[in-house]
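note to self — DONT lose this again. spent like an hour looking for the file last time. sequence + predicted structure for the chain T wanted, 253 res
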Amino acid sequence: MNNNVFVNENSIVRQIWGKADTVLFIFAGSAAEFALNKAVDWLYFTGRLPADPLGRLFSTVDYAKQIIFSDERTAIASIEKINLIHKKVETARSMQIPDWAYRDVLFMLIDYSIRSFELLERGLTGAEKEEVFNVFLRVGIHMHLTELPANYSEWKKARNEHMLHDLAASKFTKDLYRQYKKRLGVIRYWVLKQVQVLLVPKHVNKLLEFKPVIGFAVILKMYRLLKSFKLDALVKNILLPPAYKAEIQGLDT
C-alpha cells in the first residue's frame, strides 16, 4: 500500500463529487432509493435512520468523499472502517446484511453520480461513465463484495435487475418520507420530490408514484443559469435546511 491518491486528481469522479449541488442531487436520489430498498430494515435496526434520516444520508456521502479525495492508504482505511461498522451491526442483530444490499448502495452511488452530473452540468462520455464505474468497483472490491460486474455495460444490466428485485414500497417508505417532510418543511420537501422525479430511474418513480410538476424542469434550467453567474449559493441558502448548512458548505471540495 502506498500514499498515491485513490482517485486520480483529474478524474471526472472528483469533478462530480467536488460540487455541493451535484452531491446534494446524489443525496436526493439516494434518499428515494433508501426508502424503497427491501433491506432498509437494517438501517431502522440501529435507530439512526428514522431518528435523523438527513444526517444518516450525509454520513454516507461523507464517507464517499473521504474515499474519493484521500490518498490510497486513507481511502482504504475508510473502507475498512465502514466494513467494521457493518460487522458490529450484524453482530448486534445476529444476522448478516445480505450481499445484494451492499451492491445496491454501491450501484446507487454509481448511477446517481452520473445522473446528477448530467442533469446539472453536461452529458458524460462513455469513457467517463466507465471511469465512474471503475472507481466504485474498487470500493466494492475493498469491501469484499461478491458478484460485482466487470465493466460499465455489465453494471447497467445488473443495476436494472437489482432495482426490479430489491426495491418495493413499504411501511418504511411512508415513514421515511414523513421524516423527510418533518425535517425539511413543506417547501423544501416539495423541491426534494420534484428533483427526485427528474433524477431517479423510471422504475423508482413508478414505485414512489410521484407526479412531476409542469415547469419544474424550466426552474432547474434557471438554476443552471444562476450557477454560471455564481448566484447559486443564494438559492442554496434559501432552500437548504439551516441545521445542515455546515455539512452542505463542506460539500464543495
